[in-house]
């Protein structure tokens, strides 16, 4: 599809430069998602790489020792708070069609299948929530700065005592990916509970009553809650390549790489001292500057292709496997994609009951009644709940999706827990995907290590209710 791009620079009170583009395309939803991530990643491209010089390799310990090195809840008084707001679809459309009046924009969106009134309604909800959070902070004499995801920079992260996201789980994940250690508290506020659950955010009752949550925090009526994250060390020719944004239906349009933005959009350069130093010291090896809060996927870009790689779990012998890729998750991510890959349905449990009855109790009254819906549901729930574990646990869970084991001597567990996983690619167009958003090339010969460390945990807040 031929693209027509117009580039403009605008001054923003929250950000030195806000860059927007205009693309005449019917795939406005896809463009919107890509636009959000491309600009955001360009602004945060130079996030400081994690220092691997002083790593505690004891992955079996819990996160409890982290608490001893930070302010107790009773004495925590944030003076500077960074509010990261959701960049709504309507805001994007206004920037993309800056030459149109409000009426013309409404007609333009309607002609392209979008509901202008719905976009406006939900935009107002997000805006009101963000303003509500700011008002609560200001009333308590807490200095705050408000940015959207494009203005969310390392400098502002370091400036703040606490970070609050106003949006959904996507905004929360975006903020979490860039916090480099466990010293910066992150709180999520679900700005529109009518459209999303917000698993990573505060309970929805605080969405329009954030003052209650803030007062609880200022009164020390909370506990530190640590969510472990996955650190990725990448080796190979593409280790220092810029990541690609990966979204639904991405292959339907031209792939946009961040490296291209420098040449196409002539963005102001940022210092690359840290990365260049690492590149000189370690050759083709680096720790990726993003930590996975939910999960990491490793496999071919096209789901129809077989993913082929070597894999080593902890200190056990490596093995080769063909599959549909592997997913490595945290305790936080064990309720998400990992859960849905592995969960059983009542239909499966009922069928297993029938097989057990035939194998063990042939000719007898079946002790396991597959028509007993309550029993079937209890067994189903019990198995599925076993897939979920604490976000604070310093342990990864992995699953090899659709392993091809016929005719092989594969004798490893396709699903298990691990403290360290090493994967070497034997693929041609593969990627490592972090939290469903950032995608790093991972082709034949590249190697990646996945580990957890206490200092990488995300510091969250759990209110005492």
From TrEMBL:
<protein>
    <recommendedName>
        <fullName>NAD(+) kinase</fullName>
        <ecNumber>2.7.1.23</ecNumber>
    </recommendedName>
</protein>
<keyword id="KW-0808">Transferase</keyword>
<keyword id="KW-0520">NAD</keyword>
<dbReference type="GO" id="GO:0005739">
    <property type="term" value="C:mitochondrion"/>
</dbReference>
<dbReference type="GO" id="GO:0003951">
    <property type="term" value="F:NAD+ kinase activity"/>
</dbReference>
<dbReference type="InterPro" id="IPR017437">
    <property type="entry name" value="ATP-NAD_kinase_PpnK-typ_C"/>
</dbReference>
<dbReference type="InterPro" id="IPR016064">
    <property type="entry name" value="NAD/diacylglycerol_kinase_sf"/>
</dbReference>
<keyword id="KW-0418">Kinase</keyword>
<dbReference type="InterPro" id="IPR002504">
    <property type="entry name" value="NADK"/>
</dbReference>
<keyword id="KW-0521">NADP</keyword>
<dbReference type="InterPro" id="IPR017438">
    <property type="entry name" value="ATP-NAD_kinase_N"/>
</dbReference>
<dbReference type="GO" id="GO:0006741">
    <property type="term" value="P:NADP+ biosynthetic process"/>
</dbReference>
<dbReference type="Pfam" id="PF01513">
    <property type="entry name" value="NAD_kinase"/>
</dbReference>
<dbReference type="GO" id="GO:0019674">
    <property type="term" value="P:NAD+ metabolic process"/>
</dbReference>
<comment type="similarity">
    <text>Belongs to the NAD kinase family.</text>
</comment>
